[in-house]
Design a protein that fits this description.
By secondary structure, the chain is α+β, with helices and mostly antiparallel strands. The protein has a domain at 47-165: Gcn5-related N-acetyltransferase (GNAT) (Aminopeptidase, 3-Layer(aba) Sandwich), CATH 3.40.630. The chain is 24% helix and 34% strand. The protein has helices at 22-30, 65-75, 87-94, 148-162, 177-185, and strands at residues 2-6, 12-17, 34-45, 57-58, 104-109, 112-122, 131-139, 167-173, 189-198, 212-217. It is globular, with a radius of gyration of 18 Å. It starts with a strand and ends with a strand. The structure holds coenzyme A. The site of coenzyme A has 21 residues, from strand 7, helix 4, strand 8 and helix 5.
């Protein structure tokens, strides 16, 4: 996929490429653009030789929404797409056909949700097997650095493996060093890169800021 993102006035926000190639980089650099956002897709085979050592439970629709939103909006306050998530946006995602509360795991500390791992299963296609995604993972910042993030990723991977999924996948900002430390330790490797190129000093683009897109090329 290669597309131009524009704001409401038609001004260039970014050139978006996924998967990014060396040829894309060459064209963008020649036009004076720099990478303003990069999201890596990482993958690893399942199962792992290690399981989660903490207790987690499935999300309960109609009861856990606010507890999830509290942790999500604290953990992702800095994130271009996932910050400031509203109840309406959460409800819309829960109405998607892939949504399964069994794959949306919460961790509680003394009755308060302080971590979650939300997974998504992409069914098998003619081109490949089913893939299990660590869709969103977050920990209350007051609990960071104590191993909870690692355990929640493991809980999500355990769930996916229990559904006989053989490949795990996730997306992570290329400068999210804390998350990358976990994924690296758990044996994830780089599969592809999704990049946004823009004029130096441009704001970081997100799915929420682009008013329109123009496809310059679509690859399968
Ligand atoms: C990513 C996140 C879930 C990690 O949660 P956590 O409970 O702190 O995770 P852990 O304690 O298991 O591990 C954190 C690791 O990151 C490392 N780390 C933390 N800050 C870091 C930094 N700035 N640079 C490099 N490594 C860092 C820690 O040293 C630790 O690695 P180690 O165990 O090898 O020492 C948490 O930071 C979070 O919620 N972030 C916001 C949401 C997010 O980014 N989600 C991931 C999206 S892909």
């Amino acid at each position: 996929m290669r597309q131009v993102l524009e704001d409401a006035s038609g001004a260039l926000l970014a050139l978006e490429v996924d998967p990014a190639t060396d040829a894309d980089a060459e064209i963008a650099r020649a036009a004076g653009l720099v990478v303003v956002r990069e999201v890596l897709q990482l993958r690893r085979p399942l199962p792992l030789d290690r399981v989660s050592g903490i207790r987690s439970r499935p999300f309960v629709a109609g009861s856990d929404e606010q507890a999830f939103l509290r942790v999500n909006n604290l953990a992702f306050a800095w994130h271009p797409d996932q910050s400031n998530l509203s109840l309406a946006e959460l409800t819309a995602r829960m109405a998607e056909p892939w949504f399964s509360p069994e794959g949306f795991l919460l961790h509680e500390d003394h009755g308060t949700v302080n971590g979650f791992c939300w997974t998504k299963i992409h069914p098998a296609t003619d081109d490949g097997p089913a893939i299990g995604e660590i869709y969103v993972i977050g920990v209350d910042p007051s609990a960071h650095g104590r191993g909870l993030g690692t355990e929640m990723v493991l809980a999500g991977l355990d769930h996916l493996a229990s559904r006989t999924i053989g490949v795990a996948m996730l997306h992570v900002e290329a400068d999210n060093h804390a998350a990358l430390a976990i994924y690296d330790r758990l044996g994830f490797h780089r599969h592809s890169s999704h990049q946004w190129w823009a004029i130096p000093g441009s704001p970081v683009p997100s799915a929420r800021t682009a008013a329109s897109t123009t496809d310059t090329e679509t690859t399968p």
